[in-house]
Design a protein that fits this description.
The chain is mostly beta strands and 263 residues long. Among the domains are: 7-76; 201-260, SH3 type barrels (Roll). Helix content is 5%, strand content 46%. The protein contains 2 helices and 19 strands. Strands 1, 2, 3, 4, 5, 6, 7, 8, 9, 12, 13 and 14 form a 12-stranded antiparallel beta sheet that branches. It has a 5-stranded antiparallel beta sheet with strand order 18-17-16-15-19, with no helix packed on it. It has a two-stranded antiparallel sheet with strand order 10-11. Strand 12 and strand 13 (179-182) form a beta hairpin. The longest helix has 9 residues, at 149-157. The chain is globular. The chain starts with a strand and ends with a strand.
């Protein structure tokens, strides 16, 4: 199962020091005026020269520079979904443009009645933590999943990305209710695919990965052949229409929109 999710970027008052963080240039006339509102990816960690903190930055377009740590504002990315909100979850409130935790900053009952709140399923802000394990009175907390460094670089290169496709997996019904949750890699990153403009099926070829959708039904798969009538046949590994782990092979999906994925 795959779901289209929103991406929101918010500033933070903390200074960027680590590789993988995002910053936006201030454009100070006494510093770097050409960097105003431009996004950069931190590629070299903080160092101090003549009592001035510097970090290495890239814009994702081939440009590289070293900037005074006071000449930009660190940003955080938040991946938002319409998943069910539970006690302890972190959410984004669109009117106030802020981040809140259910049960601490706002009540679950209030959020369930609001159409202006979305659940945060991943973020670059690793200070947002959830209770991930409890044994008697001992509770272990862990950070929310995060987008990959490759996605962060692409975000800067495109000067922002509003929507992405996030891969979900089925929840094994041992201690939780059955359903789906974002698929998380061993390095705690979620699997993200770009949302592209729908493509011409005639341009697709064997081996191309695509995202297809019709209404709320959507899949990610690979082209297994292109018929003479320009009807691409697809194989979907790891997901079927019923949600099982068997592959779908040789289906045409004529009524679906096709979006080519750059993996």
């Amino acid at each position: 199962m795959n779901k289209k999710c929103k991406v929101v970027m918010l500033p933070t008052d903390k200074k960027a020091t680590r590789v993988g963080q995002i910053v936006k240039g201030i454009g100070n006339e006494n510093g770097y005026p050409d960097t105003k509102d431009k996004l950069f990816y931190v590629s070299r960690e903080l160092k101090v020269e003549n009592n001035i903190p510097y970090i290495g930055l890239e814009d994702g377009k081939g440009g590289f520079c070293s900037m005074d740590n006071t000449q930009f504002i660190q940003q955080h990315l938040y991946i938002l979904s319409d998943d069910e909100i539970k006690e302890g979850d972190w959410v984004y409130e669109r009117v106030m443009n802020c981040i809140m935790q259910i049960g601490k900053d706002v009540s679950l009952k209030r959020c369930q009645k609001s159409l202006l709140v979305n659940k945060i399923i991943a973020t670059t802000d690793q200070s947002l933590k959830l209770n991930c394990y409890q044994l008697l009175d001992f509770i272990t907390q862990c950070s929310l999943p995060k987008p990959s460094n490759e996605f962060i670089q692409e975000f800067c290169k495109k000067d922002g990305i509003d929507e992405v496709i996030v891969e979900y997996e089925e929840i094994l019904p041992f201690n939780e209710k059955s359903g789906y949750k974002p698929k998380v890699a061993p390095d705690n990153t979620i699997l993200i695919y770009p949302v592209e403009d729908s493509c011409d099926r005639k341009e697709l070829k064997f081996g191309d990965w695509v995202y297809v959708k019709k209404g709320n039904t959507q899949y990610i798969g690979v082209i297994v052949n292109q018929g003479t009538d320009n009807r691409p046949r697809l194989c979907f590994c790891g997901v079927t229409k019923s949600g099982s782990n068997k592959a779908i092979g040789g289906e045409y999906f004529d009524e679906y929109e096709f979006y080519k994925l750059e993996l």
